[in-house]
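dumping these here so i dont lose them again. two proteins, back to back, each one seq then structure tokens. dont judge the mess
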Amino acid sequence: KLDLKNNRELLNTIVKTMGSYIDEALNKENTLKMKFLAAHMEHMLGQSLMNLSMRESLQGKLGHIYYYLNDYSKAKDLLEKTLSELKGQNTEYEKIAETLMYLGDVYSVLSDYEKARNLSQESVEIYQNHLPKDYLGTAKAFAYLGNVYRRLGNYEKAKELCEQSLEIYKQHNLQNSIKFAWTLAHLGQAYKELGNYDKAQSFLEESLRIYKEKSPDNYLREAWVLGHLGSVYRELGEF
């Protein structure tokens, strides 16, 4: 009915609208909405109407969705494919940096830490060299790199990078971002591993407060922070 084969402008608008809707779900870490979106995305990507640019945009976002849904195998395949296509163009810096960031964390979860560190470091460098005013992206990239170092057991470096991330959030009044709460939680974990339980408690409690206030339906993230906070209270003797 829409004759999208001949109405490319309308098709482009549909893809952009879908992309914005997905970004909202990703930014709020709304995993329930992501589950529903994944099926729609798979169907859209199966259509022959979309050009390479449209496909890259949605394909990369679907990779991010699978990352949040803990389907790391699918996430890895989609993100690697997207990264390969984007690097062929060499100008889509924002998409490349974001894809590297998520792919690095996927490799970290899969215990390929060297690959994870290289990808995450490359993401940080692209934000610094090509996207200096993308403060939110830069802050996230520092935190993801910090998380890789935490999994490597380098807790001091993890702490340093997460603190750099938080400083960027604060300097540019981005504390409303859910990723601010995410970074606080990872910084709390780093302090826990370093044996500074009072600091760990403070950061984890602040993270929990933000999740409850800004994303009250995000039960998975709330449970995640509560688990780490309970572990800290145990170390403090607050049984």
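---- next one ----
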Amino acid sequence: VLANAGKQSTPGLEMEGMWQPSDAWRLTLAATFLDPEYDSFVGASGVNGPEDLSGTTPAGIHKVTVDTSTTYYFDLGSTQSFIRGEYTYADKIQVIENVPAEVASAKVSTFNGSLGFGWSNGLELIIWGRNLFNDEYLLSAFPSVAQAGSYSGYPNQPRTFGVTLSSTF
């Protein structure tokens, strides 16, 4: 079912910044603060069928999102190297209107890390890990087909590790 809200407002504030206190350290911060609301949404596809969602918070929009990172650059022998940590936080939301929040809600608290080495010949090696603390949440959800009262969802990626090798020439 596809439907359009009559009117939705999302006032907010977004900010980002970077501070490099020395050649070796770089810190970043980005934050978004939103106040989303359906001003008018009659006939929305809700948990119990068509609903009037006017005056409610739209699903899938975090009111607070914060991304931060710190990177330390250093020389290791003949390599220009770095170590980086990244953290993402987003407050709890209902993922989608037609699936109950107790079934499909999401609160994000994810930490990533990487270690990189670069050589003067253009070769670069990065060892990385994503979602290192194995944060679990749903990206999307929907009522299951042909099974009333059942729901299906798509989870975020689990903890992953990898190596990237690249060359600039």
